């Protein structure tokens, strides 16, 4: 009986030792497998990064010709540049038209209110009439030479200013017809130009009436 117990104990101890060895070997194998998996994962990540870098370089190299192509002007760009080149003279023309319209209005006002040129011309004609008319001349002759000629001179200069104002305004209104087709004239330019036309017509009409003595003629001396 005692012998069997000792043998059984030895057998149990050996079995336990074998189990421990097997367990240790299993843990070692699992650890080795985990390390291998980690190494494979790290290698995969490195390969993915290298692939991404190479892909980025490839795309950058492929994009270089596109950048070079983008520097070249396309047909649309050329059309836009030509439109801009055409708009610049039109802008300058618009400024000129506006200035012409304002000048026509100013000339029309001068024709109605009088200017220093007309005043000097009338005074000069009065002086000439006084010098050329003798004191023995009739009253009608003296009035005509001293006053009538001076008034007609004033009317003449007023008519000239009115005519220039009218021509300037008409040119401004007709200018778009000789420019770019379809380009509308600024409304304020049209308004000012039409005002110049109106003042020119009124001034010209009054000048003709005064020069012909139909308006504010010489008084009768009889």
Describe the structure.
Helices cover 84% and strands 0% of the residues. Helix 2 runs parallel beside helix 5. The protein is rod-shaped, with a radius of gyration of 54 Å. The N terminus is likely disordered.
Break the fold down into its secondary structure elements and pairings:
Layout: H1 2-70, H2 75-113, H3 116-132, H4 139-174, H5 187-211
How many β-strand runs?
A: 0
The helical percent reads over 70%
Summarize the helix and strand pattern as letters: HHHHH
**Low-pLDDT regions:** 1-6, 64-70
Per the principal axes of the C-alpha atoms, what is the gross shape?
rod-shaped
* Alpha carbon gap, first and last residue: 187 Å
Structural class, from helix and strand content?
mainly alpha
Indicate the proportion of strand residues. under 5%
Count of runs of 4 or more consecutive helical residues: 5
Mean pLDDT: 75
Radius of gyration: 54 Å
Major sheet details: none
